[in-house]
Amino acid sequence: MLKPQEAFQILQEIPVPRQKVHLPLIHCLGGILMEDLLADRDFPPFDRVMMDGIAIGNIHIKEWALEGIAFAGETQKSLSNPNGAWEIMTGSPLPKNCVAVLKIEDLDFFEKEGKKWVSSKNDTIEKGSFIHTQGSDIQQGQIILKKGTRLKANHIAIAASVGYSKLWVEKLGEIHVFSTGDELVSIEETPLDHQIRSSNSIMMQSALQHVGITSKHHHLPDDPTIILQSLKTSLSTVDILLLSGGVSAGKKDYTPGILKDLGFEAKFHKIAQKPGKPLWVGNREDGKVIFAFPGNPISTLVCFSIYFLSWIQDKKTPFPQVKIEGLQAPLANLDHWIPIQWTREHQAKVLQHNGSGDLVHWQHADALAWQKANDPNDELTYFPL
Ligand SMILES: Nc1nc2c(c(=O)[nH]1)N[C@H]1C(S)=C(S)[C@@H](COP(=O)(O)OP(=O)(O)OC[C@H]3O[C@@H](n4cnc5c(N)ncnc54)[C@H](O)[C@@H]3O)O[C@H]1N2
Ligand code: MOO
Predict the structure, then answer these.
(1) Would the CA dihedral through 94, 95, 100, 101 be positive or negative?
(2) What's the pLDDT at 318?
(3) pLDDT tens by residue, 135-160
(4) What does each C-alpha distance from 130 to 126, 158, 306 come to in angstroms?
(5) Which residue owns the Cα nearest ligand 1 atom 7?
(6) Is domain 4-17+172-312 classified as CATH 3.40.980.10?
(7) What is the three-class DSSP state of 15?
(8) For 242-281, how does the pLDDT look when each residue is reduced to its tens digit (9 = 90+)?
(9) Average pLDDT of 105-124?
(10) What is the spatial distance between Cα 94 and Cα 97, in angstroms, rounded to a whole number?
(11) Do the strands 107-112 and 115-120 form a parallel or antiparallel pair, or are they unpaired?
């Protein structure tokens, strides 16, 4: 049977179907930037005051006569007396003729002959202190964000600061998420004794939303005709389908057969791992891709997090390592994904649980540790959840 490492390699060869779109900035998270963004001005665009306090022109004296107050949002002021000072607020342009900023905590304000003065409590004052110099971050015309950047929230802030309200990005389109199984009822319903509430789809949809992907959910009964028709309809509009349930060896586990009938080639079905052994992944000549996750809630969670999210984010193994307390002996033929909780820096402990149907004991899991078959090591690579 295929090992997880081999499954990761196969996934790398399946192209992620992305669309080229011009989107409002608020929807660009997770997309890949298709153009270089240039700084439209120097950053910062003026000598920016970094602390609330005063700006001075002479650093060799200890007392300065105050000339006025400069707030952020006001035009640049100018110091007329070389031994004077301006009261200034963080974010305001440094007044002309000033060479240093002193913060308010280090100052005493007082009056002399009816005029306002200020003195420093510090012995030394450095030229340039608390001044964020114009163009020190980047100069006008330089590339501020490179084509190919996978956009995170910090990149969105940069795009906004150079005036892009829309960006050209390559992004995953909407994904359709299917739950399958006659035993499942919706969250709002009260299940009968033999029924359970569906939880896999909302888990995947929430995680998709977190990485900036929109999704729709459909539920499918264990009826091959309905499953086939519903998947066909979805495939006419979307590139990626995520299914849960119906992929193991049960008499109503129709999914793999139906996917074959829809023209999909199984890239793999079954990985030598626990949980999540019956994972099915395949694609079609038109570039559409389907991940069919084993229905047990933890199996779906593990396979979705480890394989699907890595695939769409081009994440490469190996993952970082952590030392783990409470590890059992490794399994003989299967790699084991083990829920762990951080105990202190670079240390984690194994969480006890009742298998891949047990969502309850996995609530404290911070990460999944990867214990390879027959590997007695207690320092393992992990995948954050
Ligand atoms: N004879 C064998 N039986 C099983 C094997 C096997 O290799 N041989 N594999 C086991 C493993 S491992 C897993 S994992 C499960 C996966 O089975 P399926 O993908 O066919 O999933 P179902 O049978 O439809 O459901 C399994 C379990 O999960 C619950 N479920 C399903 N969907 C949801 C959902 N959306 N939300 C919450 N819970 C869900 C379902 O009610 C079942 O309890 O097969 C083993 N069997
Ligand atoms: O792999 Mo199943 O996920 O053991 O329950």
Answers:
(1) negative
(2) 60
(3) 999 999 999 999 999 999 999 999 99
(4) 9, 22, 45
(5) 248
(6) yes
(7) coil
(8) 999 988 877 888 899 999 999 999 999 999 999 999 999 9
(9) 95
(10) 9
(11) antiparallel
> Does any ligand 1 atom lie closer than 6 A to the CB of residue 247?
yes
Tokens at 314, concatenated: 């081009």
CA–centroid distance, residue 294 to ligand 1 (Å): 6
Q: How confident is the model at residue 8 (pLDDT cuts 50, 70, 90)?
A: very high
User: How is residue 183 written in tokens?
Assistant: 């035993």
Q: 118 CA to middle of ligand 1, Å? A: 74
Q: Give this complex's ipTM.
A: 0.96
Residue of 248, 270, 298, 354 best suited for mutating to test ligand 2, as the one with most atoms within 8 Å of CB: 298
Domain covering 22-43+137-170 assigned CATH 3.30.1850.10 in the classification: no
Question: Which CATH number is 48-132's, of 3.40.120.10, 1.10.10.60, 2.170.190.11, 3.40.50.1220?
Answer: 2.170.190.11
Residue 299, ligand 2, Cβ within 6 A: yes
Compute the mean pLDDT over every residue in the chain, rounded to the nearest whole number.
Answer: 95
Dump pLDDT digits (tens) for 80-93: 999 999 999 999 99
Which ligand has the shortest distance to the CA of 337? 2
